[in-house]
Design a protein that fits this description.
By secondary structure, the chain is mainly β. 0% of the residues lie in helices and 48% in strands. Strand 52 and strand 53 form a beta hairpin.
């Protein structure tokens, strides 16, 4: 800081005021000069003016430029083009201008020069003398006449900065600012240059690729490119390297593609994003494009197995491979969701980021399911959804109808035989016969049948006690999983019971009728009690519907085998809606009677038609095991028969007394013997 010269006028220099202390020197946008100073001390009130001196070019004389008469003024603007080789100093005059101060420091404005190589701008300047070595130069830049923004800084004494301009064919303007000791700021001239950016913008990263499950479109999200001249983003389909779309605007960071060839519902789709800069040319489609981001694939969920019987499915999805993310950049966990029959989506569980398989259970036949998996990014707090995997579990075809048409007791084995009418087109694998002593249950399985291809078949209940009680039956159809798919209506077997008064030869009979015809929208037509004698003789002793008991007198019956049996028979009123006419039969109720035997003491074989044959009168005995033997006085067997209907005629035998021996069996198959004498008379 040196004084340029000494000015002496009429006053005494030792009485002059101090010069102004120039604190800042600036150039405005039109290169006008702006000076800032601090005022000198004036205790005597002798101030007259501040004078600014200007030198236009080295070697030229300084000349007065501006006079300021306001003592308190601290700034002045000099109009002109001062961005060249100009220098300035100030003095203070006092006592009416007679006294002149020493000059201030001689200063030059802060000037910058630019050098350009493609899009790299070099900014140069000389240090401003009035600034402190501790001060920092701050660089400001304007692109294409936009506002100036801070673009870098440099220490005092360096005098150089570099700036990379990332705008295509941009007009770049620069200025330097530095703060003075007194708090004001010195500003350089504004220097302009043109640049051509041939450097691609900085690469960006996809952070999320999610599937729109309603359309199969892909929703993308990515980081903003760090390059200031990022002008937009190119979206590419990486399976066939097709450029899908162009997204304009550096701050537009999401995209949804919902057109072919993209359909992420059927396959994983792999996409990338690449930023481009402002060098875009609508005529040539030329622009600087960064390298593609990491390729992102969408989540794709599929099944690896399905167990219809267990109601279980194994789900699997694609995982990151070869450094290419799937769904999100940094997966933390996978969450599985399930929707049933179009209902709400229900969370089913999660696995960690290293797993790609999930087992879901509780699936119901006849339902439609939709599965999705979501992957979470714990870093970017993003969530990507997979495609929808759909599964329709076919409900097995039920047998319709499934009808118990009748229940007939097998009298030989006392087993109930249940007759069934069913649909042959169903997916029934097996039928189960269920029985209960009560109409409303509980029921237990008593027999099975796999006759699934017959419309009419029967199942035998081998474990019933049908002689002593009636049973309710229900038939259930099972599919190949062993699951019940259809149940018949309940049918109640008929049953007959009672007791015998063998002294009076009266049988008390009671019964309960068949219930089941109504299940075919039909009704009972006839209920009858059938009586069996002599194993083959059949009599219908009751044909009424409303009665449930009767007394049967049997003393006058010709019963050879010693047993009287009954059963109940219910007959449907007419052919039902299935084209069947049901006949139900109860158990067999039998009463055993002790043999009734009358043996005459004499007979007269004289062919008069009266008492011509010796034949015992027997009843209530078995037809087998019968033997009648006749012996003479000497103990010789003279006659024998095993036919209860045949007798001894006495032919060839003299009048006299003979011995007989009668062997027979009662209804309980017990042997009964009779001995005696018979007189043959003529």
């Amino acid at each position: 800081m040196g004084l340029v010269w000494f000015v002496s006028f009429f006053g005494t220099n030792c009485l002059a005021l101090d010069p102004p202390n120039i604190s800042c020197i600036s150039l405005d946008s039109n290169d006008n000069l702006i000076l800032n100073w601090t005022i000198p001390t004036d205790t005597s009130g002798s101030f007259s003016a501040y004078i600014v001196y200007y030198q236009d070019g080295t070697g030229n004389p300084f000349q007065s430029n501006t006079t300021i008469t306001n003592y308190n003024q601290t700034q002045v603007t000099l109009t002109g083009n001062f961005a060249g080789d100009a220098a300035f100093f100030m003095v203070t005059t006092s006592n009416g201008g007679l006294d002149v101060s020493l000059s201030s420091d001689t200063l030059k404005p802060l000037l910058i020069n630019l050098g350009v190589e493609e899009n790299l701008v070099e900014i140069n300047w000389k240090d401003l003398d009035l600034s402190s070595p501790d001060s920092i130069y701050r660089l400001y830049r304007s692109i294409n006449n936009d506002d100036f923004v801070f673009s870098g800084s440099s220490e005092f004494g360096v005098g150089k900065l570099f700036d990379m301009v990332e705008y295509c064919e941009a007009n770049a303007s620069y200025r330097i600012e530095i703060m003075g000791d007194q708090g004001c700021t010195s500003v350089s001239n504004v220097a302009n240059t043109s640049v051509l950016d041939q450097i691609a913008p900085k690469q960006t990263n996809l952070i999320c690729a999610s599937v729109d499950t309603s359309s199969g479109a892909v929703d993308l999200a990515w980081d903003r490119t760090e390059s200031e001249d990022g002008f937009g983003y190119l979206i590419s389909h990486q399976y066939d390297f097709i450029g899908l779309d162009t997204i304009w605007g550096r701050n537009n960071l999401t995209y949804t593609y919902d057109k072919l060839p993209i359909n992420a519902m059927f396959q994983p789709e792999t996409l990338s994003v690449a930023p481009f800069d402002s060098c875009f040319d609508s005529q040539t489609s030329w622009y600087n494009q960064a390298a593609d981001s990491l390729r992102f694939s969408t989540l794709f969920i599929d099944s690896i197995y399905f167990d219809r019987c267990a109601g279980e499915i194994g789900l699997k999805w694609n995982m990151p491979k070869d450094g290419y993310p799937v769904g999100v950049r940094f997966p933390s966990e996978y969450q599985v969701f399930r929707r049933q029959n179009g209902g709400a989506s229900i969370y089913r569980g999660s696995v960690n980021s290293g797993d790609s398989v999930f087992i879901d259970s509780g699936l119901v036949k006849g339902s439609r399911y939709e599965f999705n998996v979501a992957v979470l990014d714990g870093v970017h707090l993003k969530r990507a959804i997979s495609n929808t995997f759909s599964l329709k579990i076919k409900a097995p075809v039920k047998p319709d109808p499934l009808y118990i048409s009748s229940i007939i007791n097998d009298h030989e084995n006392s087993n109930n035989v249940v007759f069934v009418h069913s649909d042959t087109t169903s997916e029934t694998v097996e039928y189960g016969l269920f029985r209960s002593p009560f109409f409303d249950g509980p029921f237990q399985l008593v027999a099975n049948s796999n006759r699934k291809f017959k419309a009419n078949f029967n199942i035998v209940d081998l474990t019933s006690d049908a002689d002593h009680t009636g049973y309710a039956y229900k038939l259930i159809a099972f599919d190949y999983c062993g699951d019940s798919i259809q149940a018949s209506e309940t049918a109640l077997s008929s049953w007959i019971g009672g007791y015998s008064n063998d002294q009076d030869f009266v049988n008390q009979i009671e019964w309960s009728g068949y219930e089941g015809f109504v299940n075919a929208e039909s009704s009972l037509g006839l209920r009858q009690i059938v009586r069996l004698t002599n194993e083959v003789d059949r009599d219908t002793i009751l044909e009424k519907n409303a009665q449930f008991s009767l007394l049967d007198t049997v003393h006058n019956l010709d019963v050879v085998d010693g047993q009287i049996c009954y059963y109940l028979e219910d007959i449907e009123s007419d052919t039902n809606k299935f084209g069947l006419l049901g006949i139900s039969r109860s158990n067999l109720l039998c009463f055993d009677y002790e043999p009734k035997v009358f043996i005459p003491s004499a007979f007269t074989p004289d062919n008069d038609g009266l008492n011509d044959v010796f034949i015992p009168d027997v009843n209530f005995v078995e037809t087998t095991g019968y033997t009648l033997s006749i012996y003479d006085r000497k103990g010789n067997l003279i006659y024998i028969t095993i036919d209860p209907s045949e007798g001894w005629t006495g032919e060839g035998s003299p009048v006299g007394v003979y011995a007989y021996f009668l062997e027979l069996k009662n209804a309980r198959n017990e042997e009964v013997n009779y001995r005696g004498r018979i007189s043959l008379l003529r």
